[in-house]
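Moderator note: this is an archived Q&A kept for reference. The question asked for a predicted structure of one protein chain; the sequence and the answer are reproduced below.
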Amino acid sequence: MISSILSSFLPLLRRAPTLSMQRWNSAKEFLDIKPTTLLYLIAEKKGFVDLPAVVEDDLDEQFVRGHGPGGQATNKTNNCVVLKHVPSGIVVKCHQTRSVDQNRKIARSILQEKLDVYYKGINSEVVKERKEQQWKKQEKKRKAKDNLERKKQFKDLLKESPDAT
């Protein structure tokens, strides 16, 4: 299991000697995965290839009343789809559109991603994509912070220099 984590973050580990201690500690925290956070990832990501197939016999599908903005068209019609995968117990509720057919398709794609996380855990494509996005966001913040620090040092240098006009 450790080897699979290390192989998925090999580019990060190659850069490890060039990272400062503070950045390396934040990278180590980034690599730590808590099992409780795996099932609470953002769903409905596009472009995943290796997702498990959803067997219709394993699903319990219900249509319940919608909620939210949209008035009578959403609040009084049964267009909210609730899918339950019986073997795993995962429940997905989808009310993104007013159309029952579209909600059914969206709910099935979300369920596929949640099943991928449930069965594969750390090796899931959804988890890997999420971690990559978090790393990119942290790197962007770090670069912005470094840039601001350099600007501040440059301004301080200009104020202290006697040749400043």
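Archived answer notes: Confidence is low (pLDDT under 50) at residues 12-21, 33-45.
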